Amino acid sequence: MAAERSLEEAATDFSWLIEYAAMHGAGDERVRVAFRQYAPDSILQAWVTKIAQEKTFSGREPWCELLAETQGANAAGWVRSLWKPQEGEKLVSGSQRAYLTAACLPCRKQKGCRSFLRSWTKRPGVEADHVGQEGNGE
Questions:
Q1: pLDDT value of position 88
Q2: pLDDT in tens, 61-106
Q3: What domain of life does the UniProt record list for this protein's source (predicted)?
Q4: Can you give the chain as a three-state secondary structure string?
């Protein structure tokens, strides 16, 4: 990996921005804004590829969070596809699917979605600083 880049530098190249978000997360609004200059389908595909490359559900969790934080409602179609019957190994765990559903699908009762997200983020190792912010499909 190259020397660590600033957000401003990373934002100039899609692969650098992916690398930056992987290191720093996307809880900072400036990171989410930097992603908006790129095609949503490209961003979604990058996160789905990262998720698929991980061998364990726990290894997939940070990528699921980045997908939710940077894509929100843009990932709704892909998230809906997770609910279809699948043969073979599941791409995400049941709790990850539920989190992505709450974070990326429009909610009829937003209070319920925010409540779920808050309870999910109380799990060890999950940061809650982005929960309930606009742009996360709420």
A1: 75
A2: 999 999 999 999 999 999 999 988 877 778 999 999 999 998 998 8
A3: Bacteria
A4: CCCCCCHHHHCCCHHHHHHHHHHHCCCCHHHHHHHCCCCHHHHHHHHHHHHHHCCCHHHHHHHHHHHHHHHHHHHHHHHHHCCCCCCCCCCCCHHHHHHHHHHHCCCCCHHHHHHHHHHHHCCCCCCCCCCCCCCCCC
Distance, in Å, from the CA atom of 9 to the CA atom of 6, rounded to the nearest integer, reads 5
pLDDT exceeds 60 at position 122? yes
In a domain, 129, yes or no: no
Q: What pLDDT sits at residue 118?
A: 63
8 A C-beta contact, residue 18 and residue 8? no
Distance of CA 27 to the CA centre of its chain: 10
Counting every residue written for the chain, the total comes to 138
Q: What is the mean pLDDT of the chain?
A: 83
| Domain presence at residue 131 | no
Q: Which domain holds residue 75?
A: 7-121
